[in-house]
Automatic annotation (TrEMBL):
Keyword ATP-binding recorded: no
Keyword Signal attributed: yes
Renumbered residue ranges of the record's region Disordered: 404-433
Record protein name field: LysM peptidoglycan-binding domain-containing protein
Domain LysM intervals: 352-395
Annotated signal sequence range: 1-20
Family, similarity comment: Belongs to the transglycosylase Slt family.
Keyword line: Signal
Length: 433
């Protein structure tokens, strides 16, 4: 599972790294000299770090749960990349994470996996559901087509590609990670296998004398896989300590609220969206797993997401909408389609500040800002329970929609001409002549 957008990270091994001794009391459990010798040293002397190594080391120890978060120069180098050179990427991950993290946490808990694995998707796809690598891996979790189809039963064809279905792909990723951990008995090796495949990890283990430790087989792994685990550790650090490096979300992206239906058989999606009152672009945004503008006759229980704001209208007219969408229209202008209702734009949360007044409590301010107390404390890194007069708090509020919704109109009965009927009519006309 490769990701072409972040080749710069793997290229670090052949251009940037120059290893030396790290100050402080840190003593690695493995031989860094063997690892360091793999990098082409283009700088003289040890690397110049902007962040105190001891600080990163202490924080990683506090974060460590089931997956070891080892500190070394590789990890430190990636922390600095995400903190400085690629700070905009880190900020974008903070702005997008709330779309997917609740889903990730749900399935990680279901399969008994470490919660910190949710950060792996940031390295895989940058939380871009439509990401496709130069190798052909796709989706949030970057599955190859043959792996998705053969190992996890996903549908991948010219109509549906379930690698882009966030829920379907997340569950498959959890199943795969659980399987890899059972195979190798080590989370670092499982992560490496997720990146390069279990056969390549086993081959590296044989080439490096049978070692069953990631750092022990580091020299025998592909270059990009060597970067993979340090990137994961660095991203785990940044997602938890971004405030301390002056990185914070400015415009949080919030998913469009939606409801779902299951459909089988042929369905014209253009007709569905027109009759329901939203655009085909919105449907594509809500359903990245649907590739074509129609579902074929052999479709079975395909999940289709509809904007929540249009779902009540759809339900009221469900039978007529679906019946119309199941007919292959050849004369769109003959259908009385009401397209005057505007689609709902993607909501974006804007950053605002609030100055605490005398006597105000956390709960009172949270209610005033439309937040929970825990969310207010998390966003503002408040550890205690008291607020100070004049204290500035940060909160996020949805920006006003750029387009106004028109009043909902009653559903008009649509007229359509089927292909079979039109052919019969044409024959009758020719006979009359």
């Amino acid at each position: 599972m490769m990701w072409n957008k972040f080749v710069f990270l793997s290229c670090l091994f052949t251009s940037v790294l120059s290893f030396g001794q790290v100050t402080g009391s840190y003593q690695p459990a493995y031989d860094l000299k063997q690892i360091d010798s793999l990098a082409k040293v283009e700088q003289g002397g040890p690397p110049a770090f902007s962040i105190d190594p001891g600080l990163i080391q202490d924080r990683l120890k506090k974060l460590e749960n089931q997956i070891p978060l080892h500190y070394n120069i590789l990890t430190h180098q990636f922390v600095e990349i995400f903190a400085f050179r690629k700070a905009s990427f880190t900020q974008r991950m903070l702005e997008r994470k709330d779309i997917y993290f609740p889903l990730y946490e749900k399935y990680l808990q279901k399969y008994g996996l470490p919660d910190e694995l949710k950060y792996l998707s940031l390295i895989e796809s940058g939380l871009e559901n439509k990401a496709i690598s130069n190798k052909g891996a796709g989706g949030l979790w970057q599955f190859m087509p043959y792996t998705a189809r053969g190992d996890f039963g996903m549908r991948v064809d010219q109509y549906i590609d379930e690698r882009f279905d966030a829920e379907r792909a997340t569950e498959a990723a959890c199943q795969y990670l659980k399987r890899l951990h059972k195979t190798f008995g080590d989370w670092h090796l499982a992560l490496a296998a997720y990146n390069t495949g279990p056969s390549n990890v086993k081959r590296a283990m044989r080439r490096c004398g049978g070692s069953n430790d990631f750092w022990g087989i580091y020299a025998c792994l592909p270059a990009q896989t060597r970067a993979y685990v340090p990137q994961f550790i660095a991203m785990t650090y940044m997602m938890n300590y971004h405030w301390d490096h002056s990185i914070q979300p400015e415009n949080w992206v919030i998913d469009i609220p939606k409801d779902s239906i299951l459909v089988s058989g042929y369905l014209n999606l253009n007709t569905l969206t027109q009759l329901t009152g939203f655009s085909i672009d919105t449907l594509k945004q809500l359903n990245p797993h649907i590739i074509a503008h129609f579902l074929p006759k052999n479709s079975s229980k395909v999940k289709v997401h509809i904007p929540k704001s249009r779902f009540a209208y759809f339900e009221q007219n469900r039978t007529r909408i679906l019946d119309s969408a199941r007919v292959d229209l050849i004369a769109p202008d003959s259908a009385e389609i009401d397209t005057s209702e505007l689609e709902e734009p993607m909501p974006v949360a804007r950053r605002h500040t609030y100055r605490v007044k005398r006597g105000e409590t956390l709960s009172r301010v949270a209610r005033k800002l439309g937040m929970s107390v825990s969310e207010l404390k998390r966003v503002n890194r408040i550890r205690g329970t008291k607020l100070q007069k004049g204290q500035t708090l940060v909160y996020f509020k949805l920006a006003k929609a750029s387009k106004k919704w028109s009043k909902q109109k009653t559903f008009k009965k649509r007229k359509y001409t089927s292909r079979k009927k039109k052919k019969t009519t044409s024959k009758k006309r020719r006979k009359r002549r």
